[in-house]
TrEMBL record:
One GO MF term: ATP binding
A Pfam family of this chain: GatB_N
GO BP annotations listed: glutaminyl-tRNAGln biosynthesis via transamidation; translation
Keywords: ATP-binding, Ligase, Nucleotide-binding, Protein biosynthesis
Tagged with keyword ATP-binding: yes
Keyword ATP-binding annotated: yes
Function: Allows the formation of correctly charged Asn-tRNA(Asn) or Gln-tRNA(Gln) through the transamidation of misacylated Asp-tRNA(Asn) or Glu-tRNA(Gln) in organisms which lack either or both of asparaginyl-tRNA or glutaminyl-tRNA synthetases. The reaction takes place in the presence of glutamine and ATP through an activated phospho-Asp-tRNA(Asn) or phospho-Glu-tRNA(Gln).
Quaternary assembly: Heterotrimer of A, B and C subunits.
Name of the protein in question: Aspartyl/glutamyl-tRNA(Asn/Gln) amidotransferase subunit B
Length: 473
C-alpha cells in the first residue's frame, strides 16, 4: 500500500449479538435455526398497543463487554428511536441508544503491535430482520427482529488493514472470553463496519469517509479496506471530489458497490423512546459483574509470557483464536506452557500444514493430546514414538492407548530387560567404560545411545541412564 504520501485513517463499528436466550424487549426465543417467522410476537413485530420491556440478561452482557474493554459504565443510559424505512424493520424504527449510551471511553491493546485503539462507546440496541434475495423475489424473516446487539465504536485510531485485523480479532476474543457474545462471524453475530478515509501526509483535517457495511469475515475486512484505500488514493490523485458513501463489499468481484450516500443523524429523526424508562443501573450490581469477569486475553498473554511462552507463540495464538482455545484447554488439563508449545505449535502445526488442514479439522481432541503428553512425561512413550503416535492419531482419529497397542509403540519399562541391556552394552564396550571411570563421565551418552538402539528406541532414556550409572559406578 503506498503510504509515503498518504495517511490512512480507520474507525470501526462492530455489531455483536449478545448471547441471551430471549430477545431485547420481548420474551421471544433467540433461535437461529428456527423456521422463518416462528419466533415473533406483537412486540418484536411492532404491532399497535405493544409495550417493550428491557431484558436484564442483555444489559448484564453489555455491561460485561463494556468492562472488559475498559469502558466506564454509565449509571444512567437512555433508549431512543432511530427511524428508517426497510422491509426488514416492521416498526419503522429501531430501538437503540443515542445521546446516552451504556458505556464510553475504553481502549484495546493490539497484541504484538504495542499500540492501543481507543473505544468511543458501547451501546445496546435491537437487531432488524433478515432479507433473502432470490432471482425472483425477496423473502423476509422477522425472527432476528429484536435480538439484542452491542454496538462497539472505536475512535479513528486504526491506520492500516493489518491493524484493523488485529483490532477485530482481539475484540472478538475479548467478547468470547467474557461470554458476552459467541461472536460467530459466519453466522452474522460479529459484523464489522469500517469507515475509511485517506489524507495527504501532514494535512490536519480528515478526508471524506467511505463506509463498508456488514463485513462477516476477517478476510473481507482486510480486502474491503485495501480496496477503499486504493480507490480513494486514485480519486485524490485524479483530483476527483470524494463523496461520503456507504458501500457493500462484493466478495466475488472484489469491489465496493455503492449502497447509498451517507445519511446524517438528522435523517434518522432520533427521538427518546417514549415506551421505555431510562436504564438506571444499581452500582453494586455493576461492581459485582466486574468482580466476576474472567481473566482477559491481554492479562492471560502476559502471564503466559512469564511462564515461558515466546513472543512468537503469542503472536500465533492471538492471531488464530482456534489455536489459542486449543492451547489454553491443554494448559487447563495440566500441561505446561513448554509441553503445549512443543506438541501443539510445533508438531501439530507441522502435521496439519503438511496435510493442508486447519486446526478445526484436527482429529485429535484436547483430552487425547493431553494423554499423549502425559504418557511421554511418565516415560511410557519415547519422544520419536510420541511423534509417530501423534501423526497416526491425526490420521485415524483413534485414541492414543489403542494406537500404542496397535503400533507397538509403548516403551519397555520391564526393569529386568533394561538391566540386562545396560549390562550387555557395558560388557561390549570395555574401553568406553574405562574412560568413564577415569572421569570422562560424558561418554555415558554414547552408552545410552547404544542401549536405546538395542531397545529400538522404546525405552525411557532416564530409566536406562539410571541402570548404566548403577553398574558403572
Ligand atoms: Zn417478540
Amino acid at each position: 500500500m503506498p503510504s509515503k504520501k498518504y495517511e490512512v485513517i480507520i474507525g470501526i463499528e462492530v455489531h455483536a449479538q449478545l448471547a441471551t436466550l430471549s430477545k431485547m424487549f420481548c420474551r421471544c426465543a433467540v433461535e437461529a435455526d428456527a423456521p422463518p417467522n416462528t419466533k415473533v410476537c406483537p412486540v418484536c413485530l411492532g404491532l399497535p398497543g405493544i409495550l417493550p420491556q428491557t431484558n436484564k440478561a442483555a444489559v448484564e452482557l453489555g455491561i460485561r463487554a463494556a468492562q472488559a474493554l475498559g469502558c466506564k459504565v454509565k449509571p444512567e443510559s437512555r433508549w431512543a428511536r432511530k427511524h428508517y424505512f426497510s422491509p426488514d424493520l416492521p416498526k419503522g424504527y429501531q430501538i437503540t441508544q443515542y445521546e446516552y449510551p451504556l458505556a464510553t471511553g475504553g481502549e484495546l491493546e493490539l497484541p504484538g503491535l504495542g499500540k492501543k485503539v481507543r473505544i468511543r462507546r458501547l451501546h445496546l440496541e435491537e437487531d432488524a430482520g433478515k432479507l433473502t434475495h432470490t432471482s425472483r423475489e425477496t423473502l423476509v424473516d422477522f425472527n432476528r427482529c429484536g435480538i439484542p446487539l452491542a454496538e462497539i465504536v472505536s475512535e479513528p485510531d486504526v491506520r492500516s488493514p493489518e491493524e484493523a485485523d488485529a483490532y477485530l480479532k482481539e475484540l472478538r476474543q475479548i467478547l468470547r472470553t467474557v461470554k458476552a457474545s459467541d461472536a460467530e462471524m459466519e453466522r452474522g453475530r460479529f459484523r464489522c463496519e469500517p469507515n475509511i478515509s485517506v489524507r495527504p501526509l501532514g494535512q490536519k483535517e480528515l478526508g471524506v469517509r467511505s463506509e463498508i457495511k456488514n463485513l462477516n469475515s476477517f478476510k473481507a475486512v482486510r480486502e474491503g479496506i485495501e480496496r477503499a484505500v486504493a480507490d480513494q488514493i486514485k480519486w485524490l490523485e485524479e483530483g476527483k471530489e470524494i463523496v461520503q458513501t456507504t458501500y457493500l463489499w462484493d466478495e466475488h468481484k472484489r469491489e465496493l458497490k455503492p449502497m447509498r450516500q451517507k445519511e446524517t443523524a438528522a435523517d434518522y429523526r432520533y427521538f427518546p423512546e417514549p415506551d421505555l424508562p431510562p436504564l438506571i443501573l444499581d452500582i453494586e450490581w455493576v461492581d459485582k459483574i466486574e468482580k466476576q469477569l474472567p481473566e482477559l486475553p491481554a492479562k492471560k498473554r502476559s502471564r503466559l509470557l512469564e511462564e515461558g511462552l515466546t513472543e512468537q507463540d503469542i503472536r500465533i495464538l492471538s492471531a488464530e483464536p482456534d489455536w489459542e482455545s486449543y492451547y489454553l484447554e491443554l494448559l487447563e488439563k495440566g500441561m505446561s506452557v513448554k509441553e503445549a508449545s512443543t506438541w501443539l505449535l510445533n508438531e501439530t502445526r507441522g502435521i496439519l500444514s503438511a496435510r493442508g488442514e486447519q486446526i478445526t479439522q484436527f482429529k485429535v481432541p484436547v483430552a487425547q493430546m493431553a494423554s499423549l503428553i502425559t504418557l511421554l512425561r511418565g516415560g511410557k512413550l519415547s519422544r520419536p514414538a510420541a511423534k509417530e503416535l501423534l501423526a497416526a492419531m491425526a490420521d485415524s482419529g483413534k485414541d492414543a492407548e489403542v494406537l500404542i497397542k496397535e503400533m507397538d509403540l509403548g516403551t519397555v519399562s520391564d526393569e529386568g530387560t533394561l538391566e540386562e541391556t545396560a549390562k550387555k552394552v557395558i560388557a561390549e564396550n570395555p574401553d568406553v567404560c574405562e574412560k568413564y571411570r577415569k572421569g570422562k563421565t560424558n561418554v555415558i551418552g554414547f552408552l545410552l545411545g547404544q542401549c536405546m538402539k538395542e531397545l529400538r528406541g522404546k525405552a525411557d532414556p532416564e530409566s536406562v541412564r539410571k541402570f548404566l550409572k548403577r553398574f558403572l559406578d
